[in-house]
Specification:
about 210 residues, five-stranded parallel sheet, 10 helices, globular
Amino acid sequence: MMMHPLSPFRYTAIGDSITAGAGAFYIYGYAHQYRNLIEKDLKTRVTFRNLAKSGWTSQELLQALRNDPAFFKAIQTADIITCSIGGNDLLQVGRVYEKAKMKKAGKIALQNFQRNFLSIDQTIKNIKKSSTPYSIRYIELYNPLPEFPLAQQLVKKLNQILHKAADSHTKIAPVYAAFLHHENKLLFIDGLHPNYNGHRLIAETIRKLDDKP
């Protein structure tokens, strides 16, 4: 359980279009909804920054963390950080239509994602190493194409990479299982992004992590 802060709680959200709120009413996505849940649980004001960019891959997020002073400051001062990343890395695989080449592209995408993601995680933790207690919450990918075996394999393998970051500060929200077999109710009409209910479920899935020791 998060301890009640003595000063306003600071929350920074980073990542791609899911963190940006794509698919939700008025872009009121999981990050905004999670901010409200923190305020409700801690009964305190939450200072919130959402630095997500639609379309970003893991490489673009890594570059921002390394080079953008706004990202450095927002991470440095945050009590909790949430991050969704990886969906666009895998979407690039979908642009390859030949089956054999698609498998090869998927393997390369996972290798690139692992290198970038582990660097993202280490960069965040290097920024936070002299900070007071903090929490990081990475968000598993759900599978918007459950009928395709290759999509299932790639999403599961990407989520396994996310779990490599788990430690005393870091937990991974089990969004894949939360969405499984309910995709038709939780995805926006584009078939890729969560709808409002999907974003709500992501926020609640992160919140459950805060109740565990």
